Amino acid sequence: MGEWLHLGTVGWRYGGMEIREERGAGASGEKVVNWEGFIKKLLEMAEPYLDRRGDLLHTQVAHEYALLLMEKEGGDRRIVEPAIILHDVGWSRVDPEEIREAFGVRAVGEKAARINRVHELEGALIARELLEELEYDPSLIDQIIPIVERHDSGCEPKSLEEKLVKDADKLWRFSRVGFKDEMERQKLTPSERYQFLVKNLPCWFLTKTAEEAAERELEKRALEFERDLVPEK
């Protein structure tokens, strides 16, 4: 049986989702929801928007990292989980030919930054549409949307939840599946990919837990691709 979370004074209803009214001291009239079921439904709704760049697997892995980070760092899962699931839906509104210029090792310059910004802004619009369709708590939506809107471009996170989403997003790059996927998608050699991660690891992460996880993953990638790694000159 899934975990039940309080929704505050706003209830959710959709697609057979079970909602019940909890009564008792301190909880009269509050709504609670099967959180596991909600997250599953939200991912199903996001999936069509993740097809353009092939981001479903990335989103699933980043979500798992977000859960791991929250175990150590804390954070409100009512904000973190929807934000990480919806953070890349905006790529669905970017031209496929432009997408290749906007991310990865070779994403440099004003054009790349502009395209990346489009996916953030469009993603925020889509995220709001989906969450409002689910009648999610408006006060939580208002905290989720800014995270989606600046998950790549924002330089100064406004909350712990934003830090966790940013870190979980980047940890994908260090995972076994993410390392291989990005090599293929960006047409990189193992050495090029590895050196890119080595260079950026010290400045990418906002939490100690994420930085330590990235270091462990990078050590594993070094062992897996030992024969293919060429020392940086």
Kindly summarize this structure in a few lines:
The chain has helices at about 35-45, 55-75, 75-85, 95-100, 110-135, 140-150, 160-170, 175-185, 190-205, 210-225; strands at about 5-10, 20, 30-35. The chain is mainly α.
Explain this structure.
With 233 residues, this protein is mainly alpha-helical. It has one domain: Hypothetical protein af1432, CATH 1.10.3210. Helices cover 58% and strands 6% of the residues. The chain has a three-stranded antiparallel β-sheet with strand order 1-3-2. Helix 2 (56-73) packs across helix 7, helix 7 (160-171) runs parallel beside helix 10 (208-224) and helix 9 packs antiparallel against helix 10 (208-224). The longest helix is centred in the middle third of the chain and has 25 residues, at 109-133.
CATH topology (fold) name = Hypothetical protein af1432
Strands ordered across the widest β-sheet: 1-3-2
Shape: globular
- DSSP helix count? 10
Low-confidence stretches: 9-29
Keywords:
single chain, 233 residues, mainly alpha, Hypothetical protein af1432, three-stranded antiparallel beta sheet, 3 strands, 58% helix, 6% strand, globular
Topology, pairings included?
Elements: E1 4-8, E2 19-22, E3 30-34, H1 35-46, H2 56-73, H3 77-86, H4 96-99, H5 109-133, H6 138-149, H7 160-171, H8 176-186, H9 190-204, H10 208-224
Antiparallel strand pairs: 1-3, 2-3
Helix pairs in contact: 1-3, 2-3, 2-7, 3-6, 3-7, 5-6, 7-10, 9-10
